[in-house]
Amino acid sequence: MQYLVGTDSVHTTAAICDYLAARATATDAVSVGAVAPSDEPTVRRDCQEALNVATVRLATVGDIDTVLREGDPASELLEAAAEIEADELVVGVGGDACSSERGSTVSAVLDGATRPVVVVPLSEL
Q1: Residue 80: exposed, middle, or buried by beta-carbon count in 10 A (0-12, 13-18, 19+)?
Q2: Residue limits of the UspA domain (predicted)?
Q3: Which of 6, 7, 36, 85 makes an SS bond possible with 91, Cβ 3.0 to 4.6 Å?
């Protein structure tokens, strides 16, 4: 199975890793992507930390790849999913995943996806 994870924070990555812990095996591959503008060093640092968490938390997965991209987050995730032929996209969302307030990135991914998308709820801090 080829998973594509979209993340923007350590908190999101941790929640998604909890989801994948019961699913991803040593024969699976997980690609983890974060999208940040090149002119926002704080956002880029946060995204890189989120990617670092994935490599540690998913150590038992057969193949893990991380990438920091630039551009529109939803477009970049959908493009990456097509590039790697992901079987499943996994994203995180705070609040009610069915609400119209679920976030513009998650909404755009759900609207544009041509493959299954799993929306992992993020617990409140």
Answers
A1: buried
A2: 35-121
A3: 6
Which has the closest alpha carbon to 57: 19, 90, 93, 1?
A: 19
Strand runs (DSSP E) across 1-125, as ranges? Answer: 2-7, 29-35, 63-69, 88-94, 117-122
pTM of the model: 0.88
Strand partners, 16: none
Contact assessment for residue 46 and residue 68, using Cβ atoms and an 8 Å cutoff: no
- Separation between Cα atoms, residue 74 and residue 52, nearest integer Å: 21
Q: Report the C-alpha gap between 49 and 108 in whole angstroms.
A: 24
pLDDT digits (tens, 9 = 90+) for 60-95: 998 999 999 999 999 999 999 999 999 999 999 875
**What is the extent of the structural domain holding 59?**
2-122
Per the CB < 8 A criterion, the answer to whether 13 and 57 are in contact is yes
Domains held by the chain: number: 1
